Structure formats: structure tokens, C-alpha cells
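C-alpha cells for inorganic diphosphatase. Go.
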Amino acid sequence: MLNIKTIKNSLISDESKDGFCFRSSCSQNLSQKKLAAEMADWNSSFTEADYLGMLSVMEKIVVKYLSKGYNVELPFGSLPFSFSTPFGIHFFLFLGYNLCETWGDFMKKILIFGHKNPDTDSIVSSTALEFLKKKMGFEHYSACRAGHLNPQTDYIYKKFGISTPLFIPDLLPKVEYFMHKGAITTGENESIWNAVSKMRDKKVNVLPVVDKSGLYKGLISSDLIFKSIFDNFDPMHHLSLFTSAKLLKETLKASFLSKHNPDSQREFKIILASTSFSSFSNTLKSHLSQPIIVVTGDREDIQLFCLENKVDILIITGSRTPGPKVIELAKKIGTTIILSPLNTSSTSMLIMYSVPVFKVANTSLKALHAKDLLTNVKKEILSSPLRLLPVVDDESKVIGIMSEIDLHNEPDLEIALVDHNELSQAVDGIENYTITEIIDHHRIGPAPTKSPITFINMPLGSTSTIISKLFIENKIEIPVKIASLLLSGILSDTLILKSATTTQTDVEIAKILGKITGLEIQSFGEEIIKAGSRIKDRTALQIIAQDLKEYTEAGETFTVSQIEVDGTQEILRRKEEFIAQLEEQKKERKALFSALLVTDISNLNSLMLVAGEKKFMDFLHFPKVEEQIFFLKDVVSRKKQLIPIIGELIGEFENY
């Protein structure tokens, strides 16, 4: 298995070969196969097949990158790629360091899931595989779980002080998997000029509006800003403006010569001192009953007259600093003087953009939540004015934008499965995502995939054994905590190496992990088995659900749960409770039957409690302990012993 970090380093480490990689031999018609051959010749660390496989993967990444309209940064410049550019142009030549170093940012997240009612092997395999992948350079893998920890698994994670996989109860299509992440926001008290600048710099026409705590308050768009400016220039509007001295200063990139309540936001009358003194004085006197902003040049008579009439804000244009008399008087009477570097015309235009964002924003648009189901938000998005809406998290902080286009995008994540491969046992909603990898030790029954995937299936006692082998094969050291988890998974799934599923490989790997951890196999195994056999303070539903698997044979659905106990007395004492819950399970899933396999670790035999259709119950010929309870001598493995027998029985039953 290739290590991405090694590949990246090998591909970008040698610039001496004619500039960058294969410049002299590359052409727009260079095929991936030809390129792979040249790469293998240039760097023999990997074979032509290795490079060809990597190019195929990278093509998908590059196409996604280019389709978003990005320019590609080069060590020697920048080239805009068109979407139609053949990949044979040789992305190593044209993409340079920038993409090679950041390509992980454009790869989809891969969530690692065990089965939806996870046992210890399922959970620890997810954690260990994430660690292994990241050590190999795959930072986009994350361990997850679809169900709650059973008592044994909970005990193990707490004992070793390890964080459990992220709990994701289902994978129904949600906004967070399709939205455009990392939305640029604007503060509600920022000027619309600042918002316009962000739109221009980031090449967007919409910004979510947030308060000083980062909480969502509304949405501002270029259309709303245009409407605001248009309204302010309307002759019937008489040039009134809601702003503050601080916003005016920031918008104009000006400076204060005197200031008074610079943060105070209110509605001002704007008067331009562009007429004769007589005309200006008449205009000013007619509006003295309201807050006033006067824009003027270096006319001291106008400036002093404004101060005598105690205008609120005096903007002097062209960086023409007034005399000391004007500044001193302004400070004395509480008038703010702003010195603008722009001429009068530009200043009078630009102050229209000093309005705070919240006065222009649409505050009636409700944000979507990241966890909202796609089916529930489609109508809201399509009916919104801009056919898009901001997305917030649990704290109402903006984390993205969801648009009409995003509704048709592929999700930004893919799935890896451990310890199962049948979709009936997988997290709900998995059919909406691409499965990229499966590591398992059970029978094979997966749904068809759209493209080839990595599928490791081995007849071993646990998935933890397989993942331990992957560490060893890739020469990656197993840390003590990870080794402790993997040893737990092996001992739990093989009943301390006594189950019929146990192989010599399981025994050998367990010994290796025991040496790494310093744990004595037998005593540690007994410790974790005991932790999982507690039933006194747990309901029948909790026990049946903790390790339940659903199967399909000959078109019939059935479920089998399993629990290991040190003696079956407590189960038999509560048999009515367990059988009643199995009846509920059967009805809920419309199953042929539901069963609970109770494995006694003291004698390595099992009882099976069954709730099923009467005809099928009559067909069962296991030794009966009492009604709906059967004795299974030497049967301890659901996977290797019970399920094959059940499969044959159902086949016979269907033909009965």
C-alpha cells in the first residue's frame, strides 16, 4: 500500500530535471499511461502501475478543483485551467507545489463505520484504522460509530483513556454533507462598503451577516446593497443617511481631527457645501432640527458657520487640514471633524456606503441547520430570494452556504466499512454514499459498487487481527494504546482465543500485541469478557440491541443478537422479558424470526431464545430447554457456527 506523504515528496523533490518533473517530454496529448511510464523511469521508487493508479485518483481531485474555477499556482507563475483541458497536460508540471501540498483539502472525507449495533471488535477496528490511515498520510479518514457503546467497549475505552469514535446515528443526506463550507461573513455593524470589498475580493455576491459573537443575523447581497444606494440617491429621499462617525471614517479611510460619540449610529441629513455661502446657510438653517453631516472643501467661512450652528459631523475633503481655530472650536462644542483624503465628489459618493450592514440586510431569512435533512430544506432554498441560504451549527454560528446548485452536488464524504459488509447491518442511509473500502472477516454479501474498491476479507477471528496485520505489513509501529484496543477486539471476538473462529494467525497477532502492551492475554481477556456480561441492571431491549445483526437468506429477513455471560441463570430467570422483546423485534422488522444467542463462557455452550413464525418454530429441531429456548452444544460463534446452520434451515424451510 502506497504512503501518500512519500509519493508527494518523491514527486516534488527534484526540480533539477529540466525545470519541474518532465517538462521536456510533456505535451497536451500525453496519455496517463505514457506519463506513468515516464514517471516510473524518472523515479523508480514506484512501478508504472503504482503511478498510473495514483494519476487516476488525482485526475478526480484535479477535475473537481478546476471545475470550481480556481487558478493554479505554480512555482513560476499562474495558469488558468479550463475545464476542458486534457488531464494529459501533466498536472505535476502545471500544478506545482501549491496543489501537491494542499491536495488533501480537495479530497472527500472518509468516515470509517463498523456495523450499526457495534461490538468491541467493530469499534476498536474503526479507531485503529483511522490511526493507521493517518500514519500513512491519509488525513481525511475519521473513525465513527452508528450505535452506542456496549458495557464491554465502554469499559475498554475508559480503561485505556482513549476517545471513542464520533457518534453519527445515521447517514441520511444532510445539509452539512452538501453545502459550500467556510462562508465569508460580515458583521452587522460593519459598513456596506466593507461588505462590498469582501464580495469583490472573494468573488461572491452574498454574505451572511453576524453579530459580534458570530451569531447569524441575516443575509446581505449585492442586489440589496444596490437598492440601498439607489434609494439614498433618490431625489425624493433628500439625502438622508443612517451611519456613524466611525463608519464614515472607516469607509473614507479618513482621520479624525476631533470626535464626539463616534460609535453613535443614527439618521443624518447630508448637506454638500457646493453652492454660495448664502445658499448654503439657508439650506443649513432649514434643517437644524435634525442631525446633520456637512461635506465641504477648504472653505473656512463654511466650516466656521457649521460650527457656530453646531452641526454633528463636518467632513473636510482633499486632505486639506483646517486652521487651529476650526479644530479647537469643534472640540469645544462637540462637533466631529473627519479629514477625507478624497475630493468632494468622491467623498460624497462614498459616504453612501457607510451605512451599517444590518440596515440593508434581509433579516427575515431563516438559516438552515447543518443537521437538517436535504429533503426538508429543498423547498426553503428554492423559495428564498437568492435560491440559497446560510447554514449554522448548534451555536447559530455560520459554517457554510447551501444553494440550489449544491442540492445536485455529490456529498463531500465517502464511507469505509469495518467488521461488516452487508448493507442490512450498515449505518442507516449508507446507500446515499460511495463505499471506498471494506475490511472484514465475515461472509461476503455486499451490494454492487459503482467502481472498484479496496476489499480485504480474511477468514480470521476478528477484524482487529486484519488491521494489526496491516500495521505490520506497512512497517508502522503500533502504539501501546492502539495495541491495547486491537488486543481487546481479538479477545472479545474470539472469546479469549477459544471460539471456533479462532485461527493460528489470531493467536500469533494476540501474542505480538500482548508483548507491546504488557497485558497477560488470559487474565485481560477474562477482565473484558466480565465487563461485557453484566445484565442485572440492564433492560432486555438494551441487551438485545447492543449486538444485533440483521441477515437475509432465501428472501427471508431475521435477526440474531448475542451476549456472552458467565452463567445463564439470570437470563433464564427473566426469560419472559427477553422473549417478549424478541417478539417486538420480529414485528418491527417484519422478520421470519428474532433470536438472542446467550453464550456461556464458563462451558463454551449457548442457549438461543427465539421469537418466530409458528411454522418456522415447529421446523426448528435444536434440543429444547423449554418453549422458545434451545440448547446449542459447543456453539459459541454466531458468524461461523450459528448463521451457516440457520441459513441451511431457512433453505429447507422454504422448500418444506
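Confidence is low (pLDDT under 50) at residues 1-30, 61-106.
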